[in-house]
Amino acid sequence: MKTVFTTFVALSLAGVLRGSDAADIGWVTVGDPGNPADATGFGAVPYVFQIAKHEVSNEQYVEFLNAVAKSDPHGLWSDSMGEPLLRDNGQGGIQENLPVFAERTGPPGAYHYACRAGWEKKPVVYVTFLSAMRFANWRHHGGGNGGTENGAYDLAKGGLAPREAGARVWIPSENEWYKAAYYQPASQGGPAGGYWRYATRSNDQPKAAAPGSELANAAIFGHQHQFRLLAPVGSVPNATSHYGTLDQAGNAWEWNEAIIFETKRGIRGGSVCHPYEYLQAIVRSNARPSREYPDTGFRLARRLPAAAGSPP
To answer: Residues 6 or more apart from 229 whose CB is under 8 A from it?
Structure first.
């Protein structure tokens, strides 16, 4: 089970990549280098960087699997991705709404992966932090036949491996993720102190939205145990952060690089299955790098191409 905790209040509620990579991930630039941290202690980033506008989608992850997992020695495919496993919902019942988004066919050494109809644009879930690291390594090398074991992270060092100095693309640090979600300088229309409570440029509780909503302060959340209600990425297009990211509030929890309790990685943002309180900036979650969940995915960050002030 994820450990969920808050910073201040305890809730009682439970180089430039090659062309194909640059084309299929939409990046936004997070500027204002040298910004101060929030009162929570998070959000200060001394350099300009880019972060993906959306969470990694099922079709992007399936492309990755077809490129590098024909035999899948690293377990990048989880059986949970393709079979509706029976699971205890924690209340004496069985969850019957687990997401099943892809299928794997063929024998070992010739595996083929395909998205199920209607799930192509939804965020990939059941992804461990280790698998997200390997996806980042693959993108670091430009996709295609790129390797998975080194580049942004040296997987020989395991799931707590630090980001390599020469990383071109990576899983965001907690400060990078937090800044992209919540920061907007007061001089540019943000609140006093520069940080919003929600990643929708608001201190007010977002509305629970359906895909296609045109509301600006809205998100995909509040559907208890209804994991199948994950929405396509960017389904609430006007609910952006200051820098233009979508879905940093709700839809799927997202991994970040933070190391917590010395053995776990950070997770932020809340999900389709949680109430609005979990979408707040004060809420952090965490899990072992090897864990997978039906409501947890990730997005990527990268160097600002050809720009001074990017991370070393």
So the answer is: 97, 220, 223, 272
Are the CB atoms for 271 and 250 separated by under 8 Å? yes
pTM summary value: 0.91
What region does 161 belong to: left with phi over 0, alpha with psi -120 to 50, or beta?
A: beta
Q: Determine phi and psi for 52, rounding to 5 degrees.
A: -65, 140
Amino acid at 14: A
pLDDT single digits (tens) 242-270 = 999 999 999 999 999 999 999 999 999 99
Q: What is the CATH number of domain 3-57+121-303?
A: 3.90.1580.10
Q: What b-and-e string marks burial along 195-226, b requiring 16 or more CB atoms within 10 Å of the CB?
A: bbbbbbbbeebbbbbebebeeebbbbbbbebb
> What would the pLDDT profile of 18-62 be if each residue is shown by its tens digit?
434 434 799 999 999 999 999 999 999 999 999 999 999 999 999
Mark out the alpha helices in the chain (DSSP H runs).
Answer: 19-24, 58-68, 129-140, 174-182
Q: Is 24 helix (H, G, I), strand (E, B) or coil?
A: helix
d(CA 58, CA 61): 5
* Encoded tokens for 17: 């990549």
